[in-house]
Amino acid sequence: MKRKASAVWRGDLKSGRGTISTESTLLKDAQYGFGTRFENGPGTNPEELIGAAHAGCFSMALSAELGKAGFTATEIATTATVTLENHPKTGWTVTQIHLETAAKVPGIDAAKFATIAGGAKVGCPISRLLAAAEITLDAKLV
Known about the structure:
The protein is of the alpha+beta class. It contains 4 helices and 6 strands.
């Protein structure tokens, strides 16, 4: 299975502008630029998109792992906070991703849920892709 996304950039780093599109067309010419990455300008940025991908993948992985253990979540809500830091030797680097998830899972106890959530964090394909960053998890039953 292969999925595609594309980006077009025009101009220099600070005043240039870019667009990002996905094969599914959910994103079509979505604006991104210096202002959306390092300031609070309109549009998106690579770290935000990585966070969305990681949150989505982890939620699906958690659902799959719960299913293997005989549980079905009625809701899994995950936020991924991506930390981008400028290191003197390496430059801008994603150093940490913090996953925060709240799930409604009938019939499961907190200890079992924590174990399953930890396994989902390790097994999530996007977690494995992003393993160079420190990935932390705060998983709660609601």
